[in-house]
């Protein structure tokens, strides 16, 4: 059985800068997170960046609306490309904004958009300053300490007859983060993490925590240097065909969010031990409208090493890599052996020209590994990258013309294969917006960290077309819909033949401002998967249909208390086998400006035939942490989260979540298996702002 809890510190730029009810855009955190977890059966690698820090920084230090740079504008991803272009053009044509009420005069800026933007901006000139003056400005510090624990003992911690366990460390999970910022121009911080089962100040971790990360970032500086980073940092290029660090959206009820938008260079302060760069990077203003971002990185990376067979005794053996690891967990003998097994070096650059309505960029990236990658051969992965050197290059562009925004990227890898993605966002009417995206990835295309908008990860072996719609008949109603169709010309993992698929979603939302929200959603997906043959000789490929519907209602009982309810129903069908399921949850949330205590709680019951028909639901969690459990089989679950904020800037948060299965005798599998029908997780966090 697969584990019921997936606790991932993900961030969604679209919908939250903290654990508050202030949500940029029209949708909630779950509308972005849940679609990721619905694709657990595919080859997705999740990114753990908690990028909400940027929005939180601008919430604490709003930026002058007349001095928002192009890179900073990309931070506000709740603004559409048409709105960003209209904003820049308005300032260029009309000069500085004299009043925030003037935002209503900018084309495509509706009232909900303005209300979302207002907490992050102000009218108070803050021009670029010299580094020496910035460093004399008082800064702000934030310290976070977190402890997590599963009360039931997992199989990996059980002692054998000799007193040894499979997990080398204890059951505590620990997290430490410190960050110091000066306005929005300087950021220094470090992060440390220990997963459960990892050692602490002993054996392979005599240095204490299993993972450390640190960064120093200067941004929005005067002169030629725009941004400079030392230590750990993130790089994002174009539409993700070559490189994209950080959280990237998938298909979701946010049907217009199809364009990758992010600053080329930013700090890194998360705990994903693979998805970042370590070294130095800088963004320079070469001439007006032309910037150059250059970077170099060298870091150790987890990998599974193997030795060639049948090597004569008189010849030196040369180890090679069968797979690159990204879990960041070092608990067992095998996981510890994979830790920091190789070194990955990288260098590259982004040369970008940008005007108020257009941009074009050249992206280059070179990766080298100290050990050659030689994957265990299978039919589906024979075109994947093998070797120790990989070059990627691409050109990306964007162009706004009237109510049309065109964008795209075309990339090439060192073996000569290419990938291309091109999209269009159109505002047909103040009430109707549409999105169109076409992608074509050759099966031979290779990239180590590609994250384009697509059905599968890796930017390979896929051709598809996506159509999205958002219709706002009035201020209370919103209709979102999309249709996506794709094909894979070659085999895929768990699909032993070329295949096709399609997916559609419709959501109808009704809102009464500050009072209630209700939505009705239907989603259907059909794609091919293997089905074991009766004689066991080979796998056959059949279309698998997954259909889910849900009804959601949230209602403000008073200004402090909110009630939420959601009902799921759906089925999965492959060949003649059909699985059905339902789930129902009830939420209660309390938050008052006059009382330092807030809390939220949920109780859910679920009944599904098995794991293949499951429902995902976002849960409130302590700041910087996210929980999206899967409801499957038969059982119930509850969680309770409470926060207490003192006048000294200290916030204490505690959370307990428990899942109980009525038809299972154990939970999880392998070393994570729990002998019993229940799993209980506890989390305590201290956050100090000073």
Please provide a written account of the structure.
The chain is mainly beta and 690 residues long. It is 8% helix and 46% strand. A hairpin with a 3-residue loop joins strand 21 and strand 22. It is globular, with a radius of gyration of 25 Å.
Unreliable stretches covering 5 or more consecutive residues: 1-27, 41-49
Characterize the quaternary organization of these chains. single chain
Query: What is the total tally of β strands?
Result: 33
Largest sheet: 24 strands, antiparallel, barrel
The average pLDDT score comes to: 87
Structural class: mainly beta
Helix content: under 10%
CA-based shape: globular
Radius of gyration: 25 Å
Distance from first to last alpha carbon: 45 Å
Number of helices: 7
Portion in strands:
over 45%
Short structural description:
The chain is 8% helix and 46% strand. With 690 residues, the chain is mainly β.
Features:
single chain; 690 residues; mainly beta; 24-stranded antiparallel β-barrel; 33 strands; globular; disordered N terminus
């Amino acid at each position: 059985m697969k584990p019921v809890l997936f606790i991932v510190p993900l961030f969604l730029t679209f919908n939250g800068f903290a654990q508050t009810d202030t949500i940029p855009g029209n949708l909630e955190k779950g509308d972005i997170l849940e679609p990721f977890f619905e694709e657990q059966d595919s080859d997705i690698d999740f990114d753990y960046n908690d990028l909400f820090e940027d929005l939180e920084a601008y919430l604490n230090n709003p930026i002058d609306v007349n001095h928002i740079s192009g890179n900073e504008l990309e931070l506000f991803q709740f603004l559409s490309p048409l709105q960003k272009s209209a904003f820049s053009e308005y300032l260029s044509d009309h000069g500085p904004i004299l009043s925030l009420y003037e935002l209503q005069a900018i084309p495509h800026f509706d009232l909900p958009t303005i209300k979302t933007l207002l907490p992050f901006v102000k009218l108070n000139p803050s021009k670029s300053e010299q580094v020496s003056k910035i460093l004399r400005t008082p800064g702000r510090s934030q310290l976070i300490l977190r402890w997590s624990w599963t009360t039931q003992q997992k199989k990996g911690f059980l002692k054998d007859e000799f007193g040894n366990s499979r997990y080398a460390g204890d059951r505590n999970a620990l997290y430490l983060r410190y960050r110091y910022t000066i306005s929005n121009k300087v950021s220094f911080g470090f992060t440390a993490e220990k997963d459960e089962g990892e050692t602490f100040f002993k054996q392979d971790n005599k240095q204490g925590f299993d993972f450390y990360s640190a960064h120093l970032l200067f941004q929005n500086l005067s002169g030629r240097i725009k941004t400079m980073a030392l230590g750990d940092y993130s790089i994002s290029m174009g539409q993700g065909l070559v490189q994209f660090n950080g959280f990237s959206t998938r298909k979701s009820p946010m049907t217009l969010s199809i364009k990758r938008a992010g600053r080329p260079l930013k700090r890194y302060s998360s705990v994903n031990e693979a998805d970042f760069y370590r070294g130095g990077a800088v963004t320079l203003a070469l001439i007006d409208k032309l910037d150059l971002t250059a970077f170099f990185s060298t870091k150790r990376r987890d990998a599974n090493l193997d030795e060639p067979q049948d090597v004569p005794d008189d010849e030196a053996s040369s180890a090679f890599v069968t797979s690159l690891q990204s879990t960041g967990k070092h608990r067992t003998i095998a996981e510890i052996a994979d830790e920091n097994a190789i070194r990955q070096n990288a260098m590259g650059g982004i040369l970008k020209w940008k005007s108020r309505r257009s941009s074009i960029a050249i992206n280059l990236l070179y990766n080298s590994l100290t050990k050659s990658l030689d994957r265990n051969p299978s039919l589906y992965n024979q075109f994947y990258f093998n070797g120790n050197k990989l070059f990627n290059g691409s050109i990306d562009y964007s162009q706004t013309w009237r109510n049309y925004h065109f964008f795209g990227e075309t990339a090439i890898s060192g073996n000569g294969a290419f990938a291309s993605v091109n999209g269009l966002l159109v505002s047909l009417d103040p009430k109707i917006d549409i999105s169109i995206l076409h992608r074509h990835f050759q099966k031979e295309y290779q990239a180590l960290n590609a994250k384009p908008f697509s059905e599968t990860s890796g930017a390979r072996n896929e051709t598809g077309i996506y159509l999205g719609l958002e219709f706002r008949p009035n201020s209370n109603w919103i209709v979102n819909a999309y249709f996506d169709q794709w094909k894979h010309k070659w085999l895929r993992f768990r699909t032993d033949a070329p295949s096709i698929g399609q997916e559609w979603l419709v959501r109808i939302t009704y809102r009464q401002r500050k009072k209630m929200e209700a939505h009705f959603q239907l989603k259907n997906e059909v794609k091919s998967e293997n089905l074991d043959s009766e004689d066991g000789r080979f796998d056959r490929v059949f279309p698998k249909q997954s259909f889910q519907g849900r009804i959601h209602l949230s209602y403000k009982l008073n200004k402090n208390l909110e009630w939420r309810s959601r009902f799921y129903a759906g089925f999965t069908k492959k060949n003649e086998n059909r699985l059905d399921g339902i789930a129902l949850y009830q939420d209660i949330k309390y938050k008052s400006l006059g009382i330092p205590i807030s809390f939220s709680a949920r109780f859910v019951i679920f009944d599904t035939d098995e794991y293949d028909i499951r429902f995902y639901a976002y849960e409130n969690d302590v700041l910087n942490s996210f929980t999206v459990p899967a409801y499957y089989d038969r059982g119930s679950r509850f969680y309770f989260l409470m926060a207490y904020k003192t006048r000294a800037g200290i916030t204490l948060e505690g959370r307990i979540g428990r899942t109980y299965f009525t038809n299972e005798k154990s939970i999880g599998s392998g070393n994570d298996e729990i002998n019993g029908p229940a799993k209980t997780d506890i989390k305590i966090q201290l956050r100090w702002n000073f």
